[in-house]
Sequence to fold (190 residues):
Amino acid sequence: MTQPTESKVRGWAALAVVTYGAVVVALTMLKAYFVIGLLWRPESQRGRSVEWVPFAQFRGAQTWFGPLFDALGNLAFFVPLGVLLYILLEGRARAVLVVVVTGAAISATVEVLQYVLALGHSDVTDLLFNTAGALVGALIARACGPRLHPLWIGLALTTAAVFAVLVVLGPRLGDPAAVVELGTDRPPAR
Fold:
């Protein structure tokens, strides 16, 4: 089996960056306009708040799970972006640094727009973990080398396709009667 040319790989990587970027935008700024099962309530996504203190959600939390899930989710969310950006920049000077700065800039842009457009909670901790995720992604792509680039690109495109299917299926997923509010044993009030 022949290896794809570098220009073909970069072309597919650019497509993957755009499609995965659309997933990032949808999941950070457009949740007020669609639903996937019972993962969130669109009506709860319209708001404007900002948290400037790093790791503030860990202090005073009723459980450790929510803040940890949020932090690790933000990290994991930007790993694919870091991988894909590294594939596009591989061979260039300071590619990892450029990926980290780009990841931080994308995350900062999202956080600012969430605040300005009242589309969620802006949090400096999100920025830190998103940036760390971009770094982890770049380091993974660098460590694994070009041989796995088609795999990473395929996974990112598959993720975007699965996300699109979940958006289309949206409200038909999940059983509202099975939802339990965190910290209680009863279903949410309607």
Remarks:
- The two ends are 57 Å apart (CA to CA).
- The chain has a mean pLDDT of 90.
- The first helix runs from residue 6 to 29.
- Residues 15-37+62-172 form one domain.
